[in-house]
Amino acid sequence: MDKELVLVIDFGGQYNQLVARRVRECNVYCEIYSYKTPLDKIKAMNPKGIILTGGPSSCYEEDAATCSPELFELGVPVLGLCYGAQLMSHVLGGKVERAANREYGKTDITLDTASALFGGASNAVNADILQSVPAKTTCWMSHFDYISKLAPGFKSVAHTDSTPVAAMENVERGLYGIQFHPEVLHTPEGSKMLFNFVRGICGCCGDWKMETFIEDTVKKIREQVGDKKVLLGLSGGVDSSVAAGLISRAIGKQLTCVFVDHGLLRKNEGDEVEAVFGEGGQFDLTFVRANVQERYYSKLAGVTEPESKRKIIGAEFIRVFEEESKKIGQVEFLAQGTIYPDVVESGLGGESAVIKSHHNVGGLPKDMGFIGLVEPLRDLFKDEVREVGLKLGIPEYLVFRQPFPGPGLGIRIIGEVTGEKVKIVQDADAIYREEVDKAIAEYKKANDGKAPSWMPNQYYAALTNMRSVGVMGDERTYDYAVALRAVKTIDFMTAEAAQIPFEVLQTVMSRIINEVRGVNRVFYDLTSKPPGTIEME
Ligand code: XMP
């Protein structure tokens, strides 16, 4: 089968998986490979285009991540992004230098709209589908180094106040470079630029669709598993539900789903999950609920370091699975709803640095009794997972449910986790979600079903590890502070604090203080991602 392929060559930047995500949004299949991948292997894959990503190095340093000049002679269009653009210049005879000041954040930019990257009808293969970008727009910059001299044959096609070469091209050789990050949402026209490259310049026809993904994955699972049994950790969240749907489509009753109630779930969630997936629910599954709350609290007693907490929660999860699997009989495979951002942020994808080890990927014990892992969503971003879920016929309310992390409230309680703190954060969180949901419903009712502009994609209450003095009635109090988080995001890789109306926050604050014992202060978290993460730990 001759599938169109674009290669994303990873030089270790934080946004690299987003480049792949945006390419797939153009219905073009792409894969990420390390910059260390040999040229022969790249040639053998016969890509229709190559994208060089950003990265932390300075290309003029001796041990910098680099590429062979021959990469630019394959007759395949190449687009360099940020470090990738600098490297292209450096390797092809231009000059890259350290700027006096770092250029970081949203930046005004002027584009040469005659460039095919920005929609100009040049000699692009598919000139008629190019998308126009306005000459003046904003972009997301993040660089110390800059291209001070273009390589021979290149011309600058964009500039900002402090960067003379914010984009460049050598049309004859099919080589393009962009100094900013078109892949992040902070560059509003960025998706169009990537579309113009992969569809317009590389000439990809856009034949990669979710239906194809489902067919391919079902086939792969059948090949991998054969007639063996699979155990899936079902949390009731989007990822594990969609994984369950895919795997059961592939192998039916060979799949058993185990729901671990680790005592770190939201208020009443354990019973809700059981009602949906358990006996009498809407799914045809073998459902097992393991009630291991106390076991978790004792494992977590005295542990305060976030990575240690995550590791303990993850490792215990696997142990519970092993125990449950033994009860079921011989089970060879463990299935997980790991998605692509989990993989990349755990430092397992290409060259990116470890940000945090995610529960799904971190710390698999060596002595686990399974012979392999089934992770059908490992290459997908969250919004792709939802699309697959809907295609599989999973109900919308499940597919669009706000995400809840595998380690649960364990990473929303800063510091040591105890049963008492879990109860506090569960109650505060239930009040917060109830009031936000009510405000959203009221707004929609008053506005013909339109959602409010502040509607968050994820919102929860966390328990800070801080206690402070307050006064209630005539009594001095010394209690915990709850932090309210609400973010707007599309891909969960970048996010901004949602502007929940102040009256709603005030109602939440007074209800939490009045109804939840042990809390005397409520904060609202304004931090975006980056620099914050969505979860607290
Ligand atoms: P962060 O905190 O990394 O979160 O900005 C991004 C998204 O991922 C979720 N998240 C997790 N999901 N296991 C999961 O299944 C985890 O360990 C984990 N940590 C974070 C988080 O809720 C948000 O939606």
Characterize the structure shown.
- Helix content is 31%, strand content 23%.
- It has 537 residues and is α/β, with parallel strands linked by helices.
- It is globular.
- The relative contact order is 0.09.
- The chain has 14 helices and 18 strands.
- The protein has a nine-stranded mixed beta sheet, sandwiched between helices. A five-stranded parallel beta sheet has the order 12-11-10-13-14, with helices on both faces.
- Helix 5 crosses helix 6 (238-251).
- The structure holds xanthosine-5'-monophosphate.
Largest sheet: 9 strands, mixed
Strand order of the largest sheet: 2-1-3-4-9-8-7-5-6
Bound molecules: xanthosine-5'-monophosphate
What is the alpha-carbon Rg in Å? Answer: 25 Å
Q: What brief labels describe this structure?
A:
alpha/beta; nine-stranded mixed beta sheet; binds xanthosine-5'-monophosphate; 18 strands; globular; five-stranded parallel beta sheet; 537 residues
Topology (elements, then pairings):
Layout: E1 6-10, H1 16-25, E2 30-34, H2 39-44, E3 49-52, E4 78-81, H3 83-91, E5 95-111, E6 136-149, E7 155-159, E8 167-170, E9 175-178, H4 190-201, H5 210-225, E10 230-233, H6 238-251, E11 255-261, H7 269-277, E12 286-291, H8 293-300, H9 306-328, E13 333-335, H10 340-345, E14 372-374, H11 382-391, H12 396-399, H13 419-446, E15 458-472, E16 475-488, E17 496-497, H14 502-515, E18 519-524
Parallel strand pairs: 1-2, 1-3, 3-4, 4-9, 10-11, 10-13, 11-12, 13-14, 16-18
Antiparallel strand pairs: 5-6, 5-7, 7-8, 8-9, 15-16, 16-17
Helix pairs in contact: 5-6, 5-11, 6-11, 13-14
The chain binds xanthosine-5'-monophosphate (XMP).
